[in-house]
Design brief:
single chain; globular
């Protein structure tokens, strides 16, 4: 086996081990995406992220081909009591053994510069990037009719 073949085999094994680690520690449930309509330039995704690991992890980013930019956002209330959406550059901590909700009116994945409208019933491919677990690829269903339930707050999208 050539050095190049050995290097490729090693890289493949490391990649598979990282994927398995992510699948064993991070689980995503109840995901959905929405936008405000066919002409919307932005959309958002919400979900429950479960960390079955023994140490905290941090969601540090997300990516998808459906938008020019994908960022982690949250809502903060300013001194005047007005809610404002802000980019969470430091990421979102997912505590060990717990579930963190990305929900309307709170933490969420924001898609800016949509390349096509979000169509009800379609799916959006999203890669969540974790500090320790690495990349977790998910398919997020678009649900433009979903009402608030299960702890999801309101969102202006």
């Amino acid at each position: 086996m050539s050095l190049k073949s050995k290097l490729f085999a090693t890289m493949a094994a490391v990649t598979l081990a990282t994927t398995a680690f992510a699948q064993d520690t991070i689980a995503v449930d109840d995901a959905y995406a929405r936008s405000s309509g066919k002409t919307a330039k932005a959309g958002a995704a919400f979900m429950m992220i479960q960390n079955a690991g023994e140490s905290d992890d941090r969601l540090i980013g997300a990516k998808s081909d459906v938008a020019a930019r994908v960022e982690l956002h949250t809502h903060e209330i300013d001194d005047a009591g007005v809610a404002k959406m802000v980019h969470v550059e430091e990421g979102i901590t997912i505590p060990a053994g717990e579930t963190h909700m990305l929900k309307r009116g709170g933490d969420h994945v924001m898609f800016m510069g949509l390349t096509a409208p979000f169509e009800h019933g379609a799916t959006v491919p999203v890669t969540l990037i974790f500090e320790h677990a690495g990349e977790v690829e998910i398919e997020v269903p678009v649900d433009l009719e979903r009402q608030d339930k299960g702890g999801h707050g309101t969102h202006s999208n």
